[in-house]
Structure formats: C-alpha cells, structure tokens
Recover the amino acids of this structure.
C-alpha cells in the first residue's frame, strides 16, 4: 500500500497535479489508512514517506507530519465503504472549473468515466481542516467519483489506488477538452442514452493493471522514479477486506 501511494503521487505529478508540497493521496486497507506525509511534493514521495493513520486520522506509524486536510480522507472513508483510495489535488483545468458556474459535459470517452456526474462542495473555499466541514464535502461527493471544491481544487475517489489515479487524470483531461472544445464552437455532447453503455465498455477492471504499469513506465522514462524500487504488478490494487 505504501508503494502504491508513492507511485500514485509521482504519476499524478507527471500529469499536472503537483502544486508545491500540497495535494495528497491515501489508500485504505481495512481500518488503516496509508497517506503521504506533509512537507514534500507528490513527485518526491517514497514508501518511507507514507504514514499509517487510523480512521479518525491519528498517526499510528511512520515519520512525519499528517496533512492538515487529512480529514477529507477520513470522512470520505467513513461515509463510503466502497472507496479504497482518496486523492485531493489542485490540477489546473479542474481547479479552474471549480471557480466557474459550469457542468461537466460528456464530450469524449474521458467524461464518460463519470456517468453519475461530479459533485460540487460550496460551503467554503478555505482549507478543509475540521471533521464537520470534511463531512459536508463527503456529502457533496455522494456516490460519485469526484467533487469540485469551490475555488479550491478537486476530490477524487476510487475503489483502489489504480481507479483513483485513473479518475483524477481522466477528469483533468475531460475538463481540458471541454475548455478547448468550447473555444472552437457549440458543444455537441454524447447523447445521455449512450453514456452508461460506453462507460461499461471503456472502463473495465481488466484494463487497470496495464494502465498502472504504463503510468509507472512513463514516470521512469521521465526520470521521476528516484528512490523507487521496481513496482510489483498491480501495486495499486485494493486488498480484500
């Protein structure tokens, strides 16, 4: 799990989710949460930089400081038993969407990953540092894969780390495509009647291992693998609970 969280940070950084030492990834294994420590960038995370927390956000193992917004992760895990990974970052296009009145349009297969749409948390643009506010974020997320944090960033979840990373990268691509397409002419979304079937065809569990291995190869080719050992196959997969 620590290795998966470390690779996830590097993958996200490679694809534009880095923001100084901000942003965090976590994975859940039963009642344990594995989460990047505060004070380093996503591209710097090694397995040794991943803390172990309980479901109340208390550190139980590891060296380093817990992120101030760890409550985002703990409250989502407590609200969603189906979630095995939580990601909060500030990618450029998705964060831009959080600052405008716009809905995700189903323009390409990227947007089809989100057939239930994306939530929007409206209560505050400040850091989310209390369980009460984080619980409100979890309610805004609802059963969905992602929620915009108004004027702040995005929260993305997955059944495991692989699915969480896929959702984070794919949402940013979908929003970027929407921004570009809107500058070219009138948007022509995929008909709603086709979305569920396209989602089932495009986003299969059997594809995730090869996607994960591809991302790891991309990180290595980019020279962002310092401190990382060879990744075991499907390191991002959620363990059975």
């Amino acid at each position: 799990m620590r290795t998966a969280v470390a690779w996830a940070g590097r993958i996200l950084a490679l694809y534009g989710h880095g923001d100084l030492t901000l942003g965090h990834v976590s994975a859940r294994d039963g009642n344990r949460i594995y989460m990047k420590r505060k004070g380093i960038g996503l591209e710097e995370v090694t397995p040794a930089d991943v803390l172990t927390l309980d479901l109340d956000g208390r550190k139980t193992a590891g060296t380093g400081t817990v992120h101030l917004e760890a409550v985002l992760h703990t409250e989502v895990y407590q609200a969603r038993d189906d979630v095995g990974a939580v990601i909060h970052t500030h990618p450029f296009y998705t964060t831009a969407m959080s600052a405008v009145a716009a809905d995700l349009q189903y323009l390409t297969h990227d947007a089809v990953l989100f057939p239930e749409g994306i939530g929007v948390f409206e209560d505050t643009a400040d850091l989310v540092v209390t369980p009460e506010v984080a619980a409100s974020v979890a309610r805004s997320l609802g059963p969905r894969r992602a929620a915009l944090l108004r004027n702040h960033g995005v929260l993305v979840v997955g059944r495991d780390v692989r699915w969480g990373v896929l959702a984070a990268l794919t949402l940013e691509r979908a929003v970027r495509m929407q921004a570009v397409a809107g500058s070219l002419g009138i948007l022509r979304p995929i008909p709603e009647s086709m979305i569920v079937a396209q989602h089932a065809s495009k986003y299969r569990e059997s594809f995730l291992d090869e996607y994960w291995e591809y991302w790891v190869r991309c990180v290595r080719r980019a020279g962002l693998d310092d401190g990382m050992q060879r990744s075991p196959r499907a390191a991002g997969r959620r363990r059975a609970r």
Summary: Helices lie at 2-14, 70-79, 92-97, 109-112, 131-141, 161-184, 192-202, 205-221. The chain has a mean pLDDT of 94.
